[in-house]
Amino acid sequence: MGGGGGDGRFSGTRGSGGATKHGAQRIKERKFTDEIIARAKQSSNIKHQNDGAKVYIDKVSRGKFNVVIVGREDTIVTVFKKINRKELNNLAKNYDLR
Question: Strand, helix or coil at 71?
Fold first, then answer.
């Protein structure tokens, strides 16, 4: 997980409790930065999973969304980058988002 926020990578320190091993892997693979994560977490479109996780949905362009799933301890569990409306709907259905 890279250096501080100055290099554009996720530092795991700015406004979060870090990430799980899986979350860190997805953040790196999908090239999420502190700024992308912060923007999603500032979104007013927030859903919840049955286990208490929060799902932040940020519309980044027409029909495209970034999603950050954060566990109960403010730890990033996973992320999705620029998914389309159908993928978002499937995610909501599969994880019983409300």
Answer: coil
Is-contact 23 79, C-beta < 8 A? Answer: yes
Rounded to the nearest 5°, which phi and psi values hold at 26? -65, -40
Who wins on pLDDT, 3 or 7? Answer: 7
Q: Are 8 and 33 in contact (CB under 8 A)?
A: yes
Q: Check if the beta carbon of residue 11 is closer than 8 Å to that of residue 4.
A: yes
Q: How far apart are CA 41 and CA 56, in angstroms?
A: 6
Tokens representing residue 83 in the block: 């998914």
Q: Which residue has the tokens 């969304």?
A: 65
Counting DSSP H helices and E strands in the chain, the numbers are 3, 4
Rounded Cα distance, 87 and 9, in Å: 25
Summarised one tens digit per residue, pLDDT across range 73-96 is 899 999 999 999 999 999 999 999
Nearest to 68 by CA among 58, 35, 9: 58
